[in-house]
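Thanks for the sequence, V.! I ran tRNA threonylcarbamoyladenosine biosynthesis protein TsaE right away. Repeating your input here for the record:
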Amino acid sequence: MTKNRIVLASLEEALALGARLAAVAGPGDVIALSGPLGAGKTSIARGLLAALGLEGEAPSPSFAIVQPYDVPEVRLPVLHVDLYRIEDPDEAEELGLDDARTDSLLLVEWPERLPASAWHDALWLTLAVAADGTRALTARVPAAWEGRWPLT
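Predicted structure:
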């Protein structure tokens, strides 16, 4: 597993990163988006979904927990998941995320709400907000993503 660190200086850069991820992600993949409220997790997800063909702005799945997107709305099935309101890992089992991985890309915000073993093969992107408002992104790139991660 390798780690990379980059700076996202603007909303446009976060959206562009999402678009680059859309070019290399596919069904069965998990992209874990971690960081505090307002760090840019949903912006990266929105850039990815727009690049997959979603028209209009993707809502944050904070209250729905799982926001599905299916063909033809997007090029491939995507589940945009927000685990912020999950307090016990057992609650997540009811979401059926393991089964969904067989044919969908999972974008998971607040992945740390579940044990790390749930995301052993996920591309893990952690965002931190710097004093100047930029976002520092650290990517943990598992073997399954090496060669596909846009910044390697």
